[in-house]
Amino acid sequence: MADVNRGNRPLSPHLTIYRPQLTSMTSILTRITGNALLISSLLVVWWFLAAATSAEYFAYADAVLTSWFGDLVMTLSLWGLWYHTLAGLRHLVWDQGIGLDLETAYKLGYAVIGGSVVLTLLTIVVI
């Protein structure tokens, strides 16, 4: 049967009126970094396959991955790896029922973002 009160019901919040929260943004970013890591791992596999194919093809693949664009992609992939790892650890903490209050959740969110940037910079400097 048709819902006759359809026009009187409130609609779900739309993106234009919904104010994003840190917890929702970090959750979305975790999903994005997970998918981006899959793509960057395919680039590394391509590099290894090129090394196994021929010297000329490896030189081409190596030139792509060591160019400024390749360096940018690999640096962002490194950040994505650290971010995804720290966000996973945060979820393991949440799975134990710890830190679910809003104040602690925000602190953990900022810790994941800041920690991923710091660990990325440390990894670049050390390596």
Explain this structure.
The protein is mainly alpha-helical and 127 residues long. Helix content is 76%, strand content 0%. The chain is built from four helices and no strands. It has helices at 22-53, 55-65, 68-95, 102-126. Helix 1 packs antiparallel against helix 2 (55-65), helix 1 packs across helix 3 and helix 3 (68-95) runs antiparallel to helix 4. The protein is extended. 9% of the residues are buried. The mean pLDDT is 91.
- Whole-Å distance between the termini? 66 Å
> What is the helix fraction of residues, given as a range?
over 70%
Uncertain segments are: none
Note the run of SSEs as H and E. HHHH
What shape does the CA trace take? extended
What would you report as the Rg, rounded to the nearest angstrom?
A: 21 Å
